[in-house]
Specification:
By secondary structure, the chain is mainly alpha-helical. It has eight helices and no strands. Helix 1 (5-30) packs antiparallel against helix 2, helix 2 (33-49) packs across helix 3 and helix 6 crosses helix 8 (155-175). The termini are far apart.
């Protein structure tokens, strides 16, 4: 049976709006990038199949996190998958608060545009060398050895300089983007 095109648009919007924070949530819970990607897909499949069970007015993100938590627990029981890092209710509560914060931030109108604008301003504040390394690595997609060779630097120096430049960018973007205080 073919899906209604309008329904398909709404489904894609729900996935796009919630995928990033849900992936971070599952990655924190499992410590496994590939498993997290698989679980995110499973969450959305189950959510779509059980969409009639969602109670209107309840937080949608909390409903998705509940599905995700059940999948993580099931994955931990499955011997073919790696064990999870999160195993206590207290740890799940902290992770839930952080995920709810991420979800809220990504739902704010203009959030992504504000972050991109802040990132552009922050890149301009980097030194010329750091900016050139960021440009080479992330815009041009150069490997560390190739970038080091082009700049006449050691690969280790480039790796450390990129680490520091990324840390500076993260800090700068956080300071220059309206983000709600992170939960403690």
């Amino acid at each position: 049976m073919a899906m209604d095109p309008l329904q398909d648009i709404w489904t894609q919007a729900v996935i796009e709006q919630n995928r990033r924070w849900l992936l971070a949530y599952l990655r924190a819970a499992t410590g496994d990038a590939a498993l997290s990607e698989d679980l995110v897909q499973e969450v959305f499949v189950i959510a779509y199949q059980k969409r009639h069970e969602y109670r209107k007015g309840n937080p949608f993100g909390a409903w998705l996190r509940g599905i995700a938590r059940n999948l993580v627990r099931r994955a931990a029981e499955d011997r073919s998958r790696r064990p999870t890092l999160i195993s206590t209710d207290a740890a799940w509560e902290v992770l839930d608060r952080c995920a709810a914060h991420l979800e809220d931030s990504h739902m704010r109108p203009g959030y992504e545009a504000a972050r991109q604008s802040a990132l552009r301003r922050c890149v301009e504040k980097l030194t010329n060398k750091a900016r050139a390394l960021i440009e080479g690595r992330y815009r041009r997609g150069l490997s560390l050895p190739r970038l080091a060779g082009e700049c006449g630097l050691s690969t280790r120096y480039v790796a450390v300089a990129l680490f520091r430049a990324r840390a500076a960018l993260v800090s700068c973007v956080k300071k220059n983007t309206y983000i709600v205080e992170e939960p403690s």
